[in-house]
Specification:
The protein is built from five helices and six strands, in the order ββββαβαβααα. Strands 1, 2, 3, 4, 5 and 6 form a six-stranded mixed beta sheet that branches. α3 (150-160) crosses α5. It has 204 residues and is an alpha/beta fold. The protein has helices spanning 91-105, 122-130, 150-160, 169-184, 187-195; strands at 17-21, 25-27, 55-64, 71-79, 109-113, 135-139.
Length: 204
């Protein structure tokens, strides 16, 4: 991505992907609201579960390379509302996501994310330093969500699952996976998420 081009001299631009990752998003059993249509005076009423506990947390990575096909990778974490389970992703989860993305792409990567506390953890910094031959990490400016292409992915996802009715977290997880998979195989949508940030890719 253009704002990390200064680092391209340290790695070969032709074999490097620029990646942007959103801290995470989440969806409970209550579906996102969206517009619909109905005969005048016959407003449709959809009954949903009032249960508050439990949600599906999501984190995603968009990968871009000049002249190459964009990629979307994602990871889900189902929180059932139990005291004994983590509510969200751990530092180890983020580390494993970086490694899995690197293995999928098979190239050095430039990893761009925000300044969430977990992203600044000492063990993640040490991990990046230990793998500097294929990994460079940069942080977005504070309060700069508009520069993150993954925000567009979440917008597409929420529009696609609006007004869906599910009985439990298993059903919700199934829908989210299916919708994210559809986005993954539509590169024009992923490229559109980059375009809306106003950022461009340079040759390096």
């Amino acid at each position: 991505m253009a704002f990390v081009e200064a680092a391209s001299g340290q790695v070969r631009a032709r074999s490097t992907y620029r990646l942007s990752r959103d801290p995470e998003a989440g969806q409970g059993l209550r579906p996102p609201e969206a517009g619909t249509w109905a005969p005048r005076g016959a407003r449709p009423v959809i009954t949903v579960s009032a249960r508050r506990k439990g949600r599906v947390n999501m984190t995603a990575v968009t990968a871009f390379r000049p002249g190459g096909r964009p990629h979307l990778f994602y990871k889900l974490h189902v929180y059932h509302g139990r005291k004994s389970e983590p509510k969200s992703f751990t530092r180890a989860d983020y580390r494993d996501l970086i490694v899995a993305t690197h293995h999928q792409l098979g190239t050095p990567i430039v990893w761009v994310w925000d300044n969430l506390n977990v992203h600044l953890a000492a063990d993640l910094t040490a991990f990046a330093e230990a793998n500097a031959d294929w990994l460079q990490i940069f942080h977005l400016p504070a309060y700069a969500a508009e520069l993150n292409p993954v925000e567009g992915i979440w917008s597409l996802l929420k529009r696609s699952i609006a007004n869906f009715i599910v009985a439990d977290l298993t059903g919700l997880t199934r829908i989210i996976k299916r919708k994210l998979k559809k986005i993954r195989y539509r590169p024009h949508l992923i490229n559109g998420c980059l375009k809306q940030t106003g950022l461009t890719l340079g040759p390096g």
